[in-house]
């Protein structure tokens, strides 16, 4: 009898728990079960309308969720939850906000190009306050927008030595750009505004020679209070009677460059050219307009040239010009590498073989030989105390990468047979750098990333390593 009472009590407690659970259960209506013809999302963009959901990066967008029928009137008893998701290979949630009190609009700015999904979920405000997104969903709608930048650029054409023609172009007009004007900054403190239409070409005259940075701004709104919706930049060089032609690409130290002085109008009595490179070097060259120069230190320099009517004292200057140049530190270390005669290697790894046995290998030898360089190739051999090592390698043309390096170490085992054992490293595409300490170059890699640069072999196994984080490689090129 006592047992039956226990059983009945247990059943009673289970029923009570089920009843409580049922009372707390929320009957959620999922979006796919809803009639989605009642609430819809419309949008208003800051700069233009009717662009089929195309937005510009940085443009303010106003989304409005409206009720198309009277089934669910959006008033102060409703809450709208807005969800913004970026769509790429997979959807990435951005953020979520809600509006209530009868507010149906929300503003958003998208800074990154891409496709975005906007969703509006409608709830009863009281239920949403207590249950959040677990409240019964009254209605929902979603739409996609595309955020695309305006592809805007300026083309230039030289009309004569002081007159430049600019051609602003919108390369993707299909995005439905609506603009109200164009503002041109010509770089000589001159600004010109073109209202409504962007002209096909704009001609501007410069008073003096020089290099001018030109900016074109697409505008939206009144000209006096305009928003800039896209910017295109270019630079032009206005030539005088004489101009300097520099080598292409950035100038660097430790490289000899050729400069030329070109005459727009021929100066028949030109007999000599005097060059000043701004680093203390001044040279006078008769009859030829070319000169070669090597900058020793990086920095900003002004290269100038005077065209003279005679190569002797008392000459007259027929024309002059100048050109600012920036000289960067050379990244070519090949000459310095040729002075490195010592090579040290430290290599260790704890490897897991495919047969699940483990071991720790340490290769830590000072170089007993001397590096021999031949252009970008280098080699070294040595033999000492039953050990020998030889290596061949190649660095990149700028001396910043070990393109490939093979190091093989052999030694006689202490067993009776005096068998020869060996291990070998194959290193490829390994970047290295000039160390903070003087006169040495180093390369350091640790952990699993070594697998990208190093292959390791030994007498007993040539494959099947699973490298762990204990792996480490240090390489040192030094003078001594």
The radius of gyration computed from the alpha-carbon positions, rounded to a whole number of angstroms, is 38 Å
Instruction: Report, as a whole number of angstroms, the end-to-end distance.
Output: 98 Å
Kindly report the oligomeric state of this protein.
Answer: single chain
The amount of beta strand, in percent, is over 45%
Described by strand count, sense and barrel closure, the largest sheet is: 6 strands, antiparallel
Shape: flat
Specify the structural class.
mainly beta
List the total number of helices.
3
Number of domains: 4
The helix content is under 10%
- The low-confidence runs, each spanning 5 or more residues with pLDDT under 50, are 6-38
Instruction: Give the rounded overall mean pLDDT.
Output: 78
Report the strand count. 35
Question: What are the SSEs and their pairings?
Answer:
Elements: H1 2-24, E1 39-45, E2 54-55, E3 60-67, E4 78-87, E5 91-100, E6 105-109, E7 114-124, H2 125-131, E8 139-147, E9 152-158, E10 163-170, E11 181-185, E12 191-195, E13 202-205, E14 210-220, E15 227-238, E16 242-245, E17 251-252, E18 256-263, E19 272-276, E20 282-286, E21 290-294, E22 299-308, E23 317-328, H3 334-337, E24 342-352, E25 358-365, E26 372-374, E27 377-384, E28 387-395, E29 401-412, E30 420-431, E31 433-434, E32 440-446, E33 454-458, E34 466-467, E35 472-478
Parallel strand pairs: 2-8, 17-23
Antiparallel strand pairs: 1-3, 3-6, 4-5, 4-7, 7-8, 9-10, 10-13, 11-12, 11-14, 14-15, 16-18, 18-21, 19-20, 19-22, 22-23, 24-25, 24-34, 24-35, 26-27, 27-28, 28-29, 29-30, 30-33, 31-32, 32-35
């Amino acid at each position: 009898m006592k047992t039956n009472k226990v059983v009945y009590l247990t059943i009673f407690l289970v029923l009570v728990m089920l009843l409580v659970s049922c009372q707390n259960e929320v009957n959620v209506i999922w979006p796919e079960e809803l009639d989605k013809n009642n609430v819809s999302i419309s949008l208003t963009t800051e700069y233009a309308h009717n662009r089929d959901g195309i937005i510009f990066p940085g443009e303010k967008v106003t989304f409005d969720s409206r009720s198309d029928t009277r089934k669910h009137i959006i008033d102060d008893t409703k809450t709208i939850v807005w969800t913004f998701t970026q769509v790429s290979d997979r959807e990435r949630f951005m953020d979520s906000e809600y509006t209530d009190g009868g507010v149906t609009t929300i503003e958003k700015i998208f800074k990154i190009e891409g496709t975005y999904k906007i969703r509006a979920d409608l709830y009863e405000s009281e239920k949403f306050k207590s249950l959040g997104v677990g409240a019964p969903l009254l209605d929902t709608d979603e739409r996609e927008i595309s955020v695309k930048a305006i592809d805007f650029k300026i083309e230039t054409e030289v009309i004569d030595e002081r007159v430049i023609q600019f051609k602003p172009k919108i390369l993707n007009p299909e995005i439905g750009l609506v603009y109200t004007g164009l503002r041109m900054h010509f770089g000589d403190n001159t600004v010109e505004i073109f209202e409504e239409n962007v002209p096909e070409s704009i001609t501007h005259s410069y008073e003096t020679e020089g290099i001018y940075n030109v900016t074109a701004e697409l505008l939206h709104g009144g000209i006096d209070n305009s928003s800039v919706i896209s910017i295109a930049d270019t630079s032009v060089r206005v030539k005088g009677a004489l101009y300097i032609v520099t080598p292409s690409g950035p100038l660097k130290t430790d490289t000899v460059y050729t400069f030329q002085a070109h005459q727009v109008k021929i100066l028949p009595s030109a007999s000599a050219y005097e060059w000043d490179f701004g680093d203390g070097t001044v040279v006078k060259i008769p009859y030829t307009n070319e000169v070669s120069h090597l900058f020793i230190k990086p920095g900003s320099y002004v290269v100038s040239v005077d065209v003279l009517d005679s190569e002797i004292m008392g000459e007259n200057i027929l024309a002059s010009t100048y050109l600012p140049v920036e000289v960067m530190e050379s990244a070519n270390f090949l000459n310095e590498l040729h002075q490195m005669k010592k090579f040290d290697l430290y290599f260790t790894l704890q490897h897991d073989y495919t047969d699940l046995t483990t071991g720790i290998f340490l290769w830590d030898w000072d170089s007993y030989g001397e590096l021999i360089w031949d252009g970008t190739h280098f080699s070294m051999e040595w033999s000492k105390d039953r050990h020998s090592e030889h290596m061949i390698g190649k660095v990149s043309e700028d001396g910043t990468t070990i393109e490939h390096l093979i190091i093989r170490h052999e030694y006689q085992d202490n067993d009776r047979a005096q068998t020869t054992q060996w291990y070998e490293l194959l290193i490829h595409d390994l970047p290295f750098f000039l160390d903070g300490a003087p006169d040495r170059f180093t390369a350091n890699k640790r952990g699993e990333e070594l697998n990208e640069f190093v292959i390791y072999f030994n007498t007993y196994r040539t494959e099947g390593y699973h490298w762990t984080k204990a792996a480490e490689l240090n390489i040192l090129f030094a003078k001594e």
